[in-house]
Every structure is written in structure tokens, then in C-alpha cells.
Specification:
Layout lengths: L2 E4 L1 H5 L5 E4 L3 E2 L2 H11 L4 H4 L1 H5 L10 H6 L1 H8 E4 L3 E11 L9 E14 L2 E12 L7 E10 L1
Parallel strand pairs: 1-4
Antiparallel strand pairs: 2-6, 3-6, 5-8, 6-7, 7-8
Length: about 150
Amino acid sequence: MTTTVNGLDEIRALAGKDLGRSGWLEIAQERVNTFADATGDHQWIHVEPVRAEGGPFGGTIAHGYLTLALVIPMFNELLEIGGVTMSINYGLEKVRFPSPVRVGARIRLGAVVVSVEDVPGGVQMLLDFTVEIDGAAKPACVARAVYRHYA
């Protein structure tokens, strides 16, 4: 379910809120191949299914940075912000990839608003993101993200 807020005061009120979980997203080999083409990272564990069957993960896996990039569309399912002139991804404080995402697996995003602080002209949100893998004990990715929203 999407949380919708309007303006800086409603964003401030999100501090400490668990935004829930996105829907599941299946990771297809085609998406991994497209990401490999976009980044130039054609390592065999990502793009050679036959070779990867005998590799350490028993098949091809998504790039860690692909998993991280998919946070964007999944996060858009969780939070909609209106009443601001601009929102920017200000950066990441910490990112880890505890478990690989096998091609064919499903992932989803969980997000918690850690804090909201005033900055000149707007607010800064810290969010803890967890990318879960369906049926896996460990997450694919954990990250603390920094977003800024301006009036």
C-alpha cells in the first residue's frame, strides 16, 4: 500500500514510520543482460547461464548494482510525495549485499523512515531499505539512503 504525503510537514511526520513492503518483482535473465550491456559488466556469473550452472551460485545472478537500482521502482510503490518543488536522491550512507539474487528469484523492498531533518530550503530523509528475496533467510541488499525534498 502506498503512503501519500503532501508538503514538508507531512514528510516530517513520517519519521520513524515503517512504509511496509513493495510487491514482488521477478528477476529475469533479460533484465540482467540489459543491465550488463548498460554497464559493460559482462562477468559470466551474470550473463552465461550454462557456465554459471557449475559456478558458486548454481546459476546466473543479478548484479549487486542492478539489485540496488531496482530499489527505485519498488520504492515508488511505497511512497508518493506531493507538494514539493523537487526531490533528489542525495546518496547512500551504507550498502551491503548479504545474499545473491539468482535469476528467476523474486525480490521486494521494505523501507523504514529513520529520520527527517530540516536542511536549507527543505528536509532530508534517512531511510533504511531492505531488499528481500522470496524464501531466502538473508536479504539481497541492505542500504541506508538519503533523500532531500525541497519546498
